[in-house]
């Protein structure tokens, strides 16, 4: 059996999912960013303390439909930026928690910054480091290798990227 490096493979999958999503975000308007396809959709709303995403803990079952704005927060801040919390890398986006952006341009900029920082951090681990356990800051996932986090991040990009693409299609064809 031939041993092959895993890091290039997992990063290639991440890159494919990221580039597919980023291409689908071209031309995103503020109206489309905040468009609520159904009543009761979770989105980003103006509040006294700035723009905040809708959130309940625990999450309702079934989960509500979410807007593109909410999904970009989830990917950029809640996932990719937060995945770097146990690293030495500074948080690539200025917002934290439920805070997010009320317009598309800064949301896209932060998503792109988070995606690039996450990828660079994983690439910097190298082939040996990608197999190291994530550590105690990761709780029940602490014994999992960093490679598992790259696979999970790729799944998040593909899953929510497809949802965003569908929302864009529905927005374009709405009555």
Short recap of the structure:
The protein has 6 helices and 2 strands. It is mainly alpha-helical and 175 residues long.
How would you explain this protein's 3D organization?
Pfam families: DinB_2. This is DinB family protein. The protein is mainly α and about 180 residues long. It has one domain (about 5-170): Four Helix Bundle (Hemerythrin (Met), subunit A) (Up-down Bundle), CATH 1.20.120. Helices cover about 50% and strands about 5% of the residues. It is built from six helices and two strands; from the N terminus they run ααββαααα. It has helices spanning about 5-25, 30-35, 70-85, 105-125, 125-130, 145-170; strands at about 45, 50-55. The chain has a two-stranded antiparallel ribbon with strand order 1-2. Strand 1 (about 45) and strand 2 (about 50-55) form a beta hairpin. Helix 1 (about 5-25) packs antiparallel against helix 4 and helix 1 runs parallel beside helix 6. The longest helix is centred in the last third of the chain and has 27 residues, at about 145-170.
């Amino acid at each position: 059996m031939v041993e092959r490096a895993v890091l290039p493979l997992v990063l290639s999958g991440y890159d494919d999912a990221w580039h597919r999503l980023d291409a689908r975000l071209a031309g995103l308007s503020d109206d489309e960013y905040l468009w609520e396809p159904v009543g009761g959709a979770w989105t980003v709303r103006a509040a006294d303390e700035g723009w905040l995403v809708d959130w309940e803990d625990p999450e309702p079952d079934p989960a509500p439909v979410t807007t593109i704005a909410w999904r970009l927060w989830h990917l950029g801040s809640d996932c990719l930026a937060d995945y770097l919390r146990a690293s030495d890398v500074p948080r690539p986006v200025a917002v934290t928690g439920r805070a997010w952006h009320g317009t598309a341009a800064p949301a896209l900029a932060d998503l792109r910054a988070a995606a690039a920082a996450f990828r660079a951090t994983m690439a910097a681990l190298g082939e040996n480091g990608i197999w190291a356990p994530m550590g105690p800051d990761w709780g029940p996932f602490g014994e999992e290798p960093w490679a598992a986090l790259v696979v999970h991040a790729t799944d998040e990009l593909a899953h929510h990227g497809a949802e965003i693409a569908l929302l864009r299609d529905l927005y374009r064809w709405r009555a």
